[in-house]
Fold this protein.
Amino acid sequence: MNPATVVKLFVTPSKGWKEVVKKSPPVHQLFIFYVVPLALIPSLIIGHADQTPAWEILKLLNPRSLPLVGAALFVIQLIVVAMMAIVMRQLADLAETKVSFKSAFTLAAICPTPLWLSAIALLIPSSLLVIAAVCLAMMASVGLMYYGVPEIYKLRNQGQSMLLFGGILIAGVVAMGFLMVATLVIWGSLQNLTIAS
């Protein structure tokens, strides 16, 4: 995926999504060359948090378990993106429309882009700036989803579009909750292992 196309999604969302729909790469390319590198950003920052200003925010973590927590976060993110694509494809029934897995995966891959990039804020030693960056990233992700749903699902009816957007938004919140809980469970397990050893 061309970075200029992603920037266009923020500047002119409708035109940007139309271009994404026309020039969308195959699922495997989008996964390998877009999702994997972006999912690495928060994982690497968490994995090496003891060497960054983020350590002040994350000092509850055991420094020896950080690489494992980062690796677990990376794997969970990849699974969540694929699961969201499956859920988005199934939610098309809400709007009485059909969508290909490729289109659903494109939406599932692009929408979390601001959230992945917001992890860079962990390099700043300010909790308030990190919180502000994450809040802005959440709003940007919701905006991408809002403008992407009508284009990906080819909906012209505003009611159907809003219904589908709401369903996908709820699924996204559940997926984000799962991501956080799974990461915390893994972190807790690793903390117990390091205490026992």
Summary: The mean pLDDT is 87. Residues 24-196 form one domain. Helices lie at 3-11, 13-23, 27-47, 66-91, 101-110, 113-118, 127-152, 158-196.
